[in-house]
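Sample pair:
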Amino acid sequence: MRVYLPTTTSVLRTLLDEGLLTGPHTAFAVTPQLREFYERSDPSADLEELEYAALLTAARASLRLLDVDPTAVRRRVVLAADVPDDQVEVMDDPHVERGAVRVRADIRMRDVASAHIDDSEAEDDVRAAVNVVLEADLGSEDAQFVVDQAEGHELAWYATQELGPALELL
């Protein structure tokens, strides 16, 4: 199953240095709940669109991780990884976001299909969003506006062989 793992540049460095991220992990995927939610508004939603929705939800979760990782560069990072279906448990709870899954397995570098990282132009908006993302989660419209500014930046796609050089440039 393809999962989208929210992370930070610090965690990405660990993955590159050690070759794995020890599980379990909270990630996002195309779950029945996510599919049902999006198909209600757009019955023609295809797998690619649903995967993009899971990716964006993981990018929002990356903001929350940045809030507790002061050493990380202020850029959202999402890893797309393929893990065995039997290592993924759908979190069917109304208090968690649609598409949330628990990955019991370690994520190895060989499991990673790609990474999605903000470019330098997003840093100021991401920094501001990190400071208010929890307020946005609690319903603050002003905070949500700031988070929306950060989420307006498209994440750049990186193949796994590009991750080391990309991290060196940060």
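Residues 2-159 form one domain.
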